[in-house]
Amino acid sequence: MALDGKVAVVTGAAMGIGRAITEILLKNGAKVALLDMNETAGKTLMESLEKQYEREKILFLTCNVESEEQIKAAFQKTTETFGGIDILFNNAGILNETTWEKTVSVNLVGVIRVAYLALEHMSKLSGGRGGVIVNTASMAGLGPLFSCPVYTATKHGVIGFTRAMAAASNASGYGIRFNAVCPGFVQTELFSTIPAKLGPYSHLADATNQLVEKLGTLSVSQVAECVLELVTDETKTGEAMLVLPRGHQYISFTSFV
Predict the structure, then answer these.
(1) Is 151 assigned a catalytic role?
(2) What are 123-166's pLDDT values in tens digits?
(3) 240 within 8 A of 251, measured Cβ to Cβ
(4) Catalytic residue among 151, 174, 201, 250
(5) pTM of the model
């Protein structure tokens, strides 16, 4: 998929991985709607981007992925402004083992909610152009991060949802590819606050730090490059890409289909 002229929506776009993929999409010619509940960070990013890219290619919308109303409004505004949607980077997420219900609500329910509402604009069955949806999972979705059981569960769920939706899209004719990016530890605000968010597993903070030292950390730009591959390579659907400092790889799963 060539990105020039394509329309992308990025959730959790104001900082971290979301910001990095927003910038790389714009750099490659896409129009991007930035969705984030952090209005201050979003507007600051907009001001920065407007100095480098055409203003008419960028749209910031305040949006909480827990709100169906806000998501619907954001997709509608994007479609009205840019004429459709071709790409969704379903990225908004949190890590907090204390407020575990909210972690499930944002990381798993939010991903599903955003994807389903995006189908109304993207699916060829509803008059859309098709395209690609990339969901942000984690290496914790491929193997347990024992200091974060709930976060681990949500990211396993994201990968399962992604793979099932890829198969459903293929069988139903949605015309949409679904992939998941599964980064290791990334240098973001979420990563820096992990020790304070472990709740009942705070006693495992040192063990988590040891794992960080063993695996190393990724920059957001490294993750963004991998997301770009999942977006542009039209042979990729139903994939879970593990991204670590030493490189990336596609994970093989058992299939019952």
Answers:
(1) yes
(2) 999 999 999 999 999 999 999 999 999 999 999 999 999 999 99
(3) yes
(4) 151
(5) 0.96
